[in-house]
Amino acid sequence: MNELLQNLVKLQSLEFEKITGKAAEPAIAELRGKIPPQILGHYDRLVAHGKKGLAAVRGQVCSGCHMQVPL
């Protein structure tokens, strides 16, 4: 997995855990600084609508929306 995807996964796990203490805020700010604004904007729009910004694809099915994803 490349660095951008790793940063997005870390960001999503920190933001969705609801354990946003003072220790998590600097980590979230640092990760947001490493992600390009275009991708971060799209991620934020999805999160604003109550959706996750990333979802795993398993067996050609998106685990977020349950739609089949072609190869």
Structure commentary:
With 71 residues, this protein is mostly helical. Helices cover 52% and strands 6% of the residues. It is built from 3 helices and 2 strands. It has a two-stranded antiparallel ribbon with strand order 1-2. β1 and β2 form a beta hairpin. α1 runs antiparallel to α2. The chain is globular.
Helix/strand class: mainly alpha
Give start-end ranges of low-pLDDT stretches: none
The total of helices stands at 3
Sheet with most strands: strand arrangement: 1-2
Mean pLDDT: 86
Number of separate strands: 2
Strand fraction band?
A: 5-15%
Largest sheet: 2 strands, antiparallel
Shape: globular
Distance between the termini: 18 Å
Q: Cα-atom Rg, whole angstroms?
A: 13 Å
**Helix content estimate:** 40-55%
